[in-house]
Design goal:
5 strands; 12 helices; 308 residues; 7% strand; 54% helix; 3-stranded mixed beta sheet; mainly alpha; globular
Length: 308
């Protein structure tokens, strides 16, 4: 087993916390993007108290709409993911070209596996995020600046996934099997955010987080979003485990990885505890066999203790 540092383990699900946030800077756009109600034009000729009442009603309507999107999304009624039957690329991950080829195959597999489910959910199933494999200490995206070694999903345009290849290459030197498990799980998690984006969950969750008045509530919303992405990613891995295959040493290392990823001491509690990350990852992985993956990944309808 590779004993990575706490800092390294935390970055597994390291989607930067500003994904989609730029849209929230403009209330009308944010409301439209998240399925909510844009801010109304001023109602002329009425007392200030009436104006406040209108704004309060609009805010309540918007909050209710976003809550319905994250808790009762059509995605949760679509059943199990079908196996994509994609196979793992047999290639070394010690080079940029190797990591790019490996990750691109994984993105393609994710796209193929999720298409039927997203279509059933009424989402844009044809959208395929762009993969950016880089070696920068920091990289500026349309969603903001990302620092090494964070992997990252940005929801602008058709979506983009950013992966620092050297981080994976360094893992490969210690344990090729662990590096494969890490690369697989990282892309799966980031694609989980893409699923959230095209179903409206991502923007609605960000709108909810933006509206909360306490830091504790905002952090809990972030954890619900991140843990769901891990669950959704694991659901695809589990559905395709016969063909990838996720068995033997690769499966052993994957289990170790998901059990030791999450919030670490000294860092913001924005991704979920190790225990809860393991719970949602394994829940998604085994959901295919029960044909109930979607409900098992509904972190937004779960008790706070399960997303602590």
């Amino acid at each position: 087993m590779v004993n990575l540092s706490s800092k390294k383990l935390r970055t597994l699900a390291g989607v930067a916390a500003i994904a989609g946030f730029a849209a929230l800077a403009m209330p009308a756009q944010a409301a439209q993007a998240s399925g909510g109600v844009p801010q109304p034009a001023p109602v002329l000729g009425k007392p200030a108290e009436s104006q406040a009442t209108v704004k309060s009603t609009q805010a309540t309507t918007l909050a209710s709409s976003n809550t319905n999107i994250v808790r009762y999304n059509k995605l949760y009624k679509t059943g199990a993911i079908a196996a994509s039957k994609c196979k793992e690329v047999n290639i070394s991950l010690r080079t940029e070209a190797g990591v790019r080829a490996y990750d691109q195959q994984m993105v393609t597999c994710m796209w193929a596996a999720w298409a039927p489910t997203l279509k059933a959910a009424g989402a844009n199933y044809k959208v395929k995020p762009t993969l950016f494999v880089h070696n920068y200490s920091s990289i500026t995206t349309k969603c903001g600046k990302v620092s090494y070694p964070t992997s990252y999903y940005c929801s602008y345009s058709n979506g983009a996934i950013y992966v620092p290849w050297v981080y994976i290459a360094n893992m490969w030197k210690q344990s090729p099997t662990y590096a494969r498990a890490y690369a697989t799980n990282t892309i799966a998690h980031e694609y989980g955010h893409h699923v959230q984006a095209v179903t409206g969950i991502l923007n609605a969750s960000w709108a909810r987080q933006y509206a909360f008045t306490t830091n504790a509530a905002r952090l809990e919303e972030s954890r619900r979003r991140e843990l769901q992405a891990s669950c959704l990613g694991s659901a695809m891995i589990g559905a395709n485990k016969r063909f990838y295959p996720m068995s033997g040493g690769l499966y052993t290392q994957w289990k170790y990885l998901v059990a030791n990823s999450g919030d670490q001491k000294g860092y913001p509690r924005d991704h979920g505890s190790l225990a809860n990350h393991n719970f949602w990852s394994t829940s998604g992985f085994y959901a295919a066999s029960t044909k109930t993956y979607a409900n098992r990944c509904n972190t937004f309808n779960s008790a706070s203790s399960r997303v602590a």
